[in-house]
Design brief:
- With about 260 residues, this protein is an all-alpha fold.
- The protein has one domain (about 5-255).
- About 80% of the residues lie in helices and about 0% in strands.
- It has eleven helices and two strands; from the N terminus they run ααββααααααααα.
- It has a two-stranded antiparallel ribbon with strand order 1-2.
- The two termini are about 30 Å apart.
- The relative contact order is 0.15.
Length: about 260
């Protein structure tokens, strides 16, 4: 298998993310402001309620801040890209290219995510640590596991977004699906609201959905006390299931898509 096109796509995604430097700085500043507000909020909460849902509030604070630092690296707009390709008919050109479109899309977004990790996730984690103690580990293995968890979260998120993008082909627009996904990620990723705030029923629902894998799981890997391998295994299982679904949907859509009646 010739991997050169996929390496080129990854390099393109990396460079494209860094092309608009002012936007990168603005995004980091905005994310830093939210991190500062979250740190202040949860520090105040820790003083009035040392334990939340059976978990020390300081640990909840660390989890939220670490999840917020990492979520920008795994965020993706693949569903919007796919919806636009179907809407404009560009997907017809993709179908005749002798290269896997899902593979190219993933490779390009992996390059973007790599750039976002360097210029957003790592600096934001350092900024967050200035606002509140995070209990960051000293063991290199924990940091490598965190990177692996972010890769797993990105794999899950791209697979989910790829499926939603193909769903846009069926309903005609990606706008509604984009809003639904953004809402569910905001609620269940653990980067803004910790799952400890939810009742038992809603917590159970959240754990049955893949969104907590995007922010909360990498945070647990870095600063949590749970075993790392089961967390990574859960990400891998969801990634396999979602990519299987997405590729099945892609195969069916490719067989039925028409442009200009032909």
């Amino acid at each position: 298998m010739n991997l050169a096109p996929f390496r080129a796509a990854a390099a393109l995604g990396f460079r494209h993310h860094l092309a608009y430097r002012a936007e990168v700085v603005i995004q980091l500043v905005a994310a830093g402001i939210i991190a500062a507000l979250n740190g202040a909020l949860w520090s105040a909460a820790a003083e009035s309620a040392p334990v939340l849902g059976g978990v020390p509030t300081t640990a909840v604070r660390a989890g939220v801040l670490v999840a917020w630092a990492g979520i920008g690296a795994v965020a993706t707009r693949v569903h919007e890209d796919m919806g636009e390709r179907f809407r404009t008919g560009q997907i017809a050109a993709d179908l005749v290219r002798p290269i896997s479109l899902p593979g190219m899309i993933y490779a390009r977004d992996l390059g973007r995510a790599s750039a976002a990790f360097l210029v957003q996730a790592v600096p934001l984690l350092a900024i967050s640590a200035c606002f509140a103690p995070l209990g960051l580990p000293h063991e290199p293995s924990r940091w490598l596991s965190w990177v692996a968890a972010l890769l797993g979260a990105h794999l899950v998120n791209v697979a989910l977004s790829f499926s939603l993008g193909i769903g846009a082909f069926r309903i005609g627009s990606a706008t509604g699906l984009t809003h639904v996904k953004a809402t569910l990620v905001s609620l269940f990723a653990g980067a803004l609201l910790p799952l400890e705030l939810f009742g038992p029923t809603l917590q159970a629902v959240a754990r049955c959905l893949p969104f907590h894998l995007l922010g909360r799981t990498p945070a647990l890997v870095l600063v949590g006390t749970e075993p790392v391998l089961p967390l990574l295994a859960e990400q891998a299982a969801w990634a396999v299931a979602l990519w299987a679904l997405g590729l099945w949907m892609w195969t069916r859509a490719a067989r039925t898509f028409t442009v200009a009646g032909g």
